[in-house]
């Protein structure tokens, strides 16, 4: 078999954007990736055809008689023994698809802003399915992959369904990608990193919670050995989906064509969930693949730039909010809440959110979900007196909902037991004393849409805190013949959010799911921020927020000042640490301000004023994380897009064996400019462990220190030794 590509074969497609090249070969029945990574420069057709030679690997002893290939729809036909792209069957038959690109179906569109889109259609004589493929390199250098499977209306097999079990997007990884980083966690401790080597076989993470969950893989990353925040080459994968999912890094002994392993995943489909009859189709969630030559912060830069480029991305300054949950819990009293509104206005808040407890019979978490009518016993005049008072003080009014859930002890469940997403016999196990409402049931969907929309209109609600507090188990829709409906429920949730926003332009929605259990780009396509964790203990949130910002820019992440001791951990912390922990994001307050002393309120007012001054930087700046050997300390910051201003937080969560930090580099600064360094003391200073400050700290405390960016980013500064559970805020401005 000759390794020289035929001259009548189309040359490879080369997309370039943001320092990334994506080269796709077109010399087979399905396109394949020749290169995904560093920009190769402006290469002519001859160079690209030369690169195509690398896609044909040698034949080895005791192996296939044709070269193995990894395509963008990998199947066994290509002697691919790993996870196939398309898995399914028709009555136990037609299990080995052989897709072939339809003549003249290929379209290649170059984006003037960078990158471009490749689209193609495929037929398959084995399954009789029609497939389509979309591969896009965004201007930010992210590869987006989407598959579609369509069953022709005239399929000769008649009405017998094709059972689709998986549709997986995979991209190749080179031999130097040897170390995996992904995430696990639990409630109130989400997005905890875990590292392991790439080995032969499959590192497979399966999510079967009906939502991503607290232990979501979140972003799967594979990099060169020892890659860090600012160093190493890294390849990543994220699935923009809010239901069940599969994530994998897979290495076969024989490799993956010229690559050695693959990364990717897709929606986790439960048995019998997608059964395609003639005329029906299934479209996969978008799979996002991202590469960086600059460690994890380079991955973040691409995701942040992509999200900020969306037309739906919030552009006005993120309003500082006060949320009532940890202030009053279920104890709703109009006068008490009006006093809380007054304090919120005095400290500079701009949005007031009434949390759980306002609707019919809701005095605890055992009852009333689904009865989305204002409780007349607690609110005899409805919510109007509170909402009007909120607006009279210059604040927006927000309201908590958990639309996808239902309590058995509710009027809705008693009237409509068939609206519960549960086994055909009984209701199955409860979780947090609640069950799931079947949004695939048209009547249940319309009830929710009208109930929520009516309250939004009646009370001029500007913001919905949208919760989702349980997993989906035995999620069977009685409205659809007792069929499994996790995938359909997720899509119905998307549709409900979309229709609410269409009815109410400007309405903002927060994704809250037991805290950070639904943080993904699928839900972010129709929400304006996420609640990263129910834990607002700053010792815990420092790292939770650090890893949340791997995917999301800080303006999309809710960070709140809470009380001490913390609600979830009972840990006592100084208010200065709680302020620092709530600085770099969409700031809020979850604290009973009516019980605070004047000095605390004064400090909170100063903190909010400083945070507001930072909002332009937070909304457009680059998140940076220093590489520090001591895990007890972190240096995290945001550097403005023009690098004229930056804020860094130096934090110590626990004690460690190191006495002094040594020189710590400040990443992201302009080496050609000087920076004036100010210790931010507006809302207090941390407790220092040293007997006296270093010379640079003394000067910074006096606001008289200016240093070159090159020195700060290359040499660094010996950071002060803090007592455990303390944080220091530094502001840098160019001269």
Which features would summarize this protein structure in a list?
41 strands; 3 domains; 735 residues; disordered N terminus; Beta-galactosidase, Chain A, domain 5; eleven-stranded antiparallel sheet; eight-stranded parallel β-barrel; Immunoglobulin-like; 20% helix; single chain; alpha+beta; TIM Barrel
Describe the structure.
By secondary structure, this protein is an alpha+beta fold. The protein has three domains: 74-308, Beta-galactosidase, Chain A, domain 5, CATH 2.70.98.60; 350-529, Aldolase class I (TIM Barrel); 624-734, Immunoglobulin-like, CATH 2.60.40. 20% of the residues lie in helices and 29% in strands. It contains 13 helices and 41 strands. The strands form nine sheets. Strands 5, 6, 7, 8, 9, 12, 13, 15, 16, 20 and 21 form an eleven-stranded antiparallel β-sheet that branches. Strands 22-23-24-27-30-31-32-33 form an eight-stranded parallel beta barrel. The protein has a six-stranded antiparallel β-sheet with strand order 34-35-36-41-38-39. Helix 9 links the parallel strand 31 and strand 32 (557-561). The longest helix is centred in the C-terminal third of the chain and has 23 residues, at 598-620. The N and C termini lie far apart (66 Å). The model is unreliable at 1-7 (pLDDT under 50).
């Amino acid at each position: 078999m000759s390794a020289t590509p035929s001259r009548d074969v189309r040359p490879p497609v080369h997309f370039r954007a943001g320092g990334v090249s994506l080269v796709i070969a077109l010399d087979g029945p399905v396109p394949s990736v020749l290169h995904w990574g560093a920009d190769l420069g402006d290469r002519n057709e001859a160079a690209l055809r030369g690169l195509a030679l690398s896609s044909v690997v040698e034949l080895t002893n005791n192996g296939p008689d044709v070269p193995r290939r990894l395509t963008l729809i990998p199947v066994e036909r290509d002697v691919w023994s790993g996870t196939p792209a398309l898995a399914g069957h028709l009555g136990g038959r037609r299990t080995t698809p052989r897709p072939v690109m339809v003549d003249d179906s290929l379209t290649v569109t170059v984006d003037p802003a960078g990158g471009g889109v490749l689209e193609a259609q495929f037929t398959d004589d084995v399954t009789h399915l029609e497939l389509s493929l979309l591969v896009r390199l965004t201007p930010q250098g992210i590869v987006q992959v989407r598959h579609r499977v369509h069953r022709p209306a005239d399929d000769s097999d008649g009405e017998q369904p094709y059972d689709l079990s998986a549709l997986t997007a995979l991209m190749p990884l080179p031999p130097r990608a040897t170390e995996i980083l992904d995430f696990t966690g639990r409630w109130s401790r989400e997005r905890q990193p875990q590292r392991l080597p790439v080995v032969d076989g499959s590192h497979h993470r399966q999510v079967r919670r009906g939502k991503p969950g607290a232990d979501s893989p979140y972003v799967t990353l594979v990099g060169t050995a020892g890659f860090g925040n600012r160093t190493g080459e890294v390849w990543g994968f994220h699935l923009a989906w809010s239901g069940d999912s599969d994530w994998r890094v897979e290495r076969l002994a024989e490799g993956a064509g010229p690559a050695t392993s693959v990364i990717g995943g897709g929606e986790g489909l439960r048995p019998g969930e997608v059964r395609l009859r003639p005329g029906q189709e299934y479209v996969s969630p978008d799979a996002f693949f991202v590469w960086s030559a600059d460690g994890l912060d380079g991955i973040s830069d691409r995701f942040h730039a992509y999200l900020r480029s969306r037309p739906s991305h919030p552009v006005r300054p993120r309003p500082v909010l006060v949320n009532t949950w940890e202030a009053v819990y279920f104890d709703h009293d109009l006068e008490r809440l009006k006093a809380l509104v007054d304090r919120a206005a005095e400290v500079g808040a701009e949005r007031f959110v009434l949390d759980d407890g306002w609707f019919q019979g809701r005095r605890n978490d055992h009852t009333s979900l689904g009865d989305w009518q204002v409780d007349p016993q607690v609110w005899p005049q409805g919510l109007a007196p509170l909402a009007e008072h909120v607006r009279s003080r210059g604040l927006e009014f927000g309201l908590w909902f958990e639309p996808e859930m239902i309590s058995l002890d509710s009027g809705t469940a008693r009237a409509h037991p068939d609206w519960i997403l549960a086994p055909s016999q009984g209701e199955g196990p409860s979780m947090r004393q609640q069950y799931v409402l079947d949004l695939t049931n048209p009547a249940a969907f319309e009830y929710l849409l009208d109930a929520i929309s009516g309250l939004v209109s009646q009370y001029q609600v500007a913001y919905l805190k949208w919760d989702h507090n349980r997993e989906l188990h035995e999620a069977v829709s009685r409205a659809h013949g007792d069929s499994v409906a996790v995938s359909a429920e997720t899509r119905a949730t998307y549709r409900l959010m979309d229709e609410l926003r269409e009815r109410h332009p400007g309405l903002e929605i927060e994704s809250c799911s037991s805290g950070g259990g639904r943080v993904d780009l699928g839900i972010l396509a129709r929400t304006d921020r996420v609640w990263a964790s129910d834990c607002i203990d700053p010792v815990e949130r420092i790292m939770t927020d650090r890893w949340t910002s791997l995917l999301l820019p800080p303006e999309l992440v809710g960070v709140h000042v809470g009380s001490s001791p913390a609600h979830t951990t009972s840990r006592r912390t100084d208010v200065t640490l709680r302020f620092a922990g709530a600085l770099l994001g969409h700031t809020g307050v979850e604290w009973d301000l009516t019980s605070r002393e004047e000095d605390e309120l004064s400090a909170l007012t100063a903190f909010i004023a400083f945070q507001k001054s930072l909002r332009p930087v937070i909304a457009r700046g680059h998140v940076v994380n220093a590489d520090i050997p001591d895990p007890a300390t972190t240096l995290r910051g945001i550097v403005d897009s023009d690098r004229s201003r930056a804020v860094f937080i130096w934090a110590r969560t626990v004690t460690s064996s190191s006495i002094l930090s040594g020189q710590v580099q400040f990443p992201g600064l302009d080496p050609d400019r000087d920076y004036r360094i100010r210790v931010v003391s507006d809302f207090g200073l941390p407790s220092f462990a040293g007997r006296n400050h270093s010379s640079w700290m003394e000067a910074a405390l006096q606001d008289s220190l200016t240093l070159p960016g090159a020195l700060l980013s290359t040499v660094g500064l010996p950071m002060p030794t803090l007592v455990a559970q303390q944080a220091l805020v530094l502001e840098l401005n160019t001269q």
